[in-house]
Design brief:
Layout lengths: L1 E5 L4 H13 L4 E6 L18 E5 L5 H8 L5 E4 L6 H6 L2 H21 L3 E7 L24 H20 L3 E6 L1 E3 L8 H10 L4 E4 L5 E6 H14 L5 E4 L4 E3 H12 L6 E4 L14 H7 L7 H14 L1 H9 L2 H12 L6
Helix pairs in contact: 1-7, 2-4, 4-5, 6-8
Bound molecules: nicotinamide-adenine-dinucleotide (NAD) and thymidine-5'-diphospho-beta-D-xylose.
The site of thymidine-5'-diphospho-beta-D-xylose has 16 residues, from helix 6 and strand 8.
């Protein structure tokens, strides 16, 4: 099977590519990525290139998308996005271009090339925020996005719905909760806390720290997307979650404890504007219909993920210092010509 993965140089996309090449010996994967600040080819270093290749390009550029689609694919998985809520508050424009316009360009290409399936990787944030007493989000919960990021992802979901209903483009939307695992860009909470704590730097906790997130190991998310590809129904939406709800402050304290660091590193800072209080996902549909179950709960997997960041200090130090851009330059210009923006 030929699979086009967009955004495969980011956190979840790179884990998905590694997972697919390991588990499916008959899958051939092309990674189409713009290499924004979040795209890091080092995330895929050492990968066997017999069944994998990289194409640099922008999902919002119809000419580049047409060129890559003309290679011919059965399945497209769209991970490409601007993904950080704080950045969307500072500057929403790139979120609209990539997350909304980019999805439209991919849907049009999927339509004209007749792909078998397009998986639109969405997020629980499209449902907005829950009170502590409310039940978790189901696929039927109303969309109520609160940040520019969440609004752009909800808009993309609406496009996917419309392209299915109008043109019968075979699209499936997945909505996953907060991921953790190796290769996560250290602007996100868990790798930020781990890498700051290792360096004895202050750890910023927004507001009162009592916001709740529902955490899933990235490999469980990847297995869920693979299950959707193999057994999902076009036109459907599948929530993905592992049922591991934790308050931010409790998570930060647990990481500090596991690293043997002092809680005095914690600094409460001003809250994120429009900060969603709680996310929680009801994943019973994907469990029931596709037989998927999460296997790496936060409590068990967190120590191992912390160990990964401890063992891969060179990786995150190059990301934090910006030196990973040099790796791009060296690899990119040697192999594909041209430089970075
Ligand atoms: P990430 O920011 O780590 O990676 C995004 C990747 O997309 C990068 O490699 C980047 O270079 C690429 N990209 C950005 N704009 C592009 C464009 N215009 N054209 C081509 N490539 C482009 O993000 P992530 O955390 O891996 O998230 C992947 C997807 O999963 C996103 O769609 C996100 O909304 C969704 N998601 C993430 C989480 C999470 O907890 N991280 C949870 C649920 C859903
Ligand atoms: O420094 C911080 N301090 C802090 O208290 C950071 C970066 C975050 N936080 C809080 C904000 C959130 O309540 O931690 C929580 C998690 O924050 P992020 O890691 O930025 O994730 P979140 O905003 O929940 O969004 C993530 O999950 C859903 C991903 O970034 C999205 O791409 C995904 O769709």
């Amino acid at each position: 099977m030929r699979v086009l993965v967009t955004g495969g140089a980011g956190f979840i996309g790179s884990n998905f590519i590694r997972y697919c090449l390991r588990v499916y010996p008959d899958w051939y994967v092309v990674n189409f990525d713009k290499l924004t600040y979040a795209g890091n080819l080092e995330n895929l270093a050492g990968i066997d290139e017999g069944r994998y290749s990289f194409v640099r390009g922008d999902i919002a550029d119809p000419v580049a998308v047409e060129a890559v689609f003309s290679q011919g694919f059965d399945v497209v998985v769209n991970f490409a996005a601007e993904s950080h809520v704080d950045r969307s508050i500072l500057d929403p424009a790139p979120f609209m271009r990539t997350n909304v316009l980019g999805t439209q360009v991919l849907l049009d290409a999927a339509r004209s090339h007749g792909v078998v399936l397009l998986v639109q990787v969405s997020t629980d944030e499209v449902y907005g925020s829950l009170e502590e007493c409310e039940p978790p989000f189901t696929e039927d919960s109303p969309l109520a996005p609160n940040s520019p990021y969440a609004a752009s992802k909800a808009a993309a979901d609406m496009l996917a719905r419309a392209w299915w209903n109008t043109y019968r483009v075979p699209v499936i939307i997945t909505r996953c909760c907060n991921n953790f695992g190796p290769y996560q860009f250290p602007e996100k909470l868990i790798p930020l806390v781990i890498t700051n704590a290792i360096q004895d730097l202050p750890i910023p906790v927004y507001g009162d720290g009592r916001n709740i997130r529902d955490w899933i190991h990235v490999e469980d998310h990847c297995r869920a997307i693979a299950a959707v590809i193999e057994r999902g129904s076009p036109g459907e939406i599948y929530n993905i979650g592992a049922g591991c709800e934790v308050r931010n402050i409790d998570l930060v304290r647990r990481i500090l404890l596991l690293l043997g660091k002092s809680e005095s590193l914690i600094q409460f800072v001003s809250d994120r504007p429009g900060h969603d209080r709680r996310y929680a996902i009801d994943a019973s549909r994907i469990r029931r219909e596709l037989g998927w179950v999460p296997t790496r709960p936060l409590a068990e997997a967190l120590p191992e993920v912390i160990d990964w960041y401890v063992a891969n200090e060179g990786w995150w130090r190059r990301v934090r210092s910006g030196a990973y851009r040099d790796y791009y330059e060296a690899v990119y210009s040697r192999r594909w010509g041209g430089g970075l923006e």
